[in-house]
Amino acid sequence: MKINFKSENSNSHITPCLIVPCAESTKPANCAKELDDKLKGAISAAYKEKRFEGKANQTLLLNSLGLVKAQNVLLVGVGKEAEITGEKLRQAAGTAIKIAEKNNFKKVSLVSPNGAGSLDLKGSSNNQDPGTFYYAEGAFLSLYRFDSYKSENSEDTKIGEIIFLADKKDNLQSLKKATDKARKIADATFLARDLSNHPSNTATPTYLADTARKMSRKLGIVCKVLGEKEMKKLGMGSLLGVAKGSDEPPKLIVMEYFKGRNKRNPIAIVGKGVTFDTGGISLKPPANMDEMKMDMSGAAATIGAMQAIASLKLKVDVVGIVPATENMPGGSAIKPGDVLKSMSGKTIEVLNTDAEGRLILADALSYAVRYKPKAIIDLATLTGAVIHALGHHISAVISNNDELVSQLKQSGDATGEKIWQLPLLEEYEKAIKSGIADLKNIAGPGVGAGTITGGAFLKPFIGDYPWAHLDIAGTAWGEGKAYIPKGASGVGVRLLFDLIEKGI
Ligand code: BES
Ligand code: ZN
Ligand code: ZN
Questions:
Q1: Which of 56, 302, 340, 495 makes an SS bond possible with 417, Cβ 3.0 to 4.6 Å?
Q2: Residue where a domain stops, chosen among 153, 188, 223
Q3: pTM of the full predicted structure?
Q4: For atom 17 of ligand 1, which residue has the closest CA?
Q5: Beta carbon of 326 within 6 Å of any ligand 1 atom
Q6: Taking the CA of residue 94 as centre, how many other CA atoms within 13 Å lie in the half-sphere pointing to its CB?
Q7: Tell me: the pLDDT tens digits for 473-482?
Q8: What's the domain range around 183?
Q9: Where in the sequence numbering do the catalytic residues fall?
Q10: Is the CB of 385 under 6 A from ligand 1?
């Protein structure tokens, strides 16, 4: 897709489709006043007849009948001016792009929400032009398609060019900068979405490792991939235990990006990489089991976030760690009641082989601790229970550090990848103590709080380091919204990038 920039008055700009963001009001706001005059009051008529009032995600497509240079004008609402947020801008841009696509436009021009001079967004410290950044991010994110397995080329139904318009030459530079950043972040999110959308016969642990290696080589990240032998040497009996039921060799993928001042004590990101979760011997029921190809969405977010961080050249120390394996009921698979010895030395009684994410994370977290990290953030599609608790629009966080949670919350609000803290009560830490081993991998009947006990199981493996566990089982996959497609959302990439850019 081509991206171009022009500093030109939108009323004299030649384009098949001019997209104009409008704040909510009772008559055409500043953004569309001049346009309305030229269009002989077509916009004010729409306001009067309440066909369009600038409400969030409302749209109005008008043919200009040659009255302006743009053939068509697509107005998109961003809601009340005083209530405009980054998320509203992302959604408006995404909604408009989808409408343009449905109407077969191959080329669209976007009037920047700041360039229009009508929207005053109180920006974050990180972006010179936050309005344009959020708006462009929404536009790019909504252009995602997963068509790797379609025989027919769908290229001709896609938008091939986006032109960003600046009202003044002076604004062109900041417009380009904001757009470039949004594009790189969207690309990293697309990588994560692709990895989760690929079926498990493509996206194997080896495929994840190869993808991480390729991405790392391009961007100056040091990538190491540990195989079975090395994991055995490290005593990763918990990760290897899960891998035993599968013919696919497991991998531990490590991506080191040390571009900060310290070159040590990195932020560690750890992502669950179960490339298919059958449940193992505790086999899952067949309905919707196909969705378990996305059980590596924590891994996808980790690899995607590393790409975003490195491509935007953040001066930070970060290590991304991905334990990758299938969870299969093979002849050598672990069985309920088996006891595994983890890298930490702690023994684990496996009472349900479907609670495998925590088993592979245990060893990956022990590996992360070797870096003496500033903080550990793990992302995992860990429990179905989180969908009951929070649904598909917000991830759960369980943590031993309130400051880290508050930073994550801020980033969640800024990126639209919202999080909600669940309490890590001592009672639940006790509930995963085993009678015959140090820990058991499920709490057992009557305890409930499945998402919390999942987090409680991980805690013994992180020592005293600041740590946050994100359960993304509800948010990684869904029906989609304005700029998020059906299927994989790529959740976590933008959240982690924002958190690390702002600094922990
Ligand atoms: N991968 C699943 C969790 C999951 C469920 C992810 C739905 C995405 C959508 C996980 O490994 C799992 O099976 N968890 C069990 C835990 C239980 C056995 C304690 C669950 O949630 O049922
Ligand atoms: Zn499972
Ligand atoms: Zn799983």
A1: 495
A2: 188
A3: 0.97
A4: 355
A5: no
A6: 20
A7: 999 999 988 9
A8: 2-188
A9: 284, 358
A10: yes
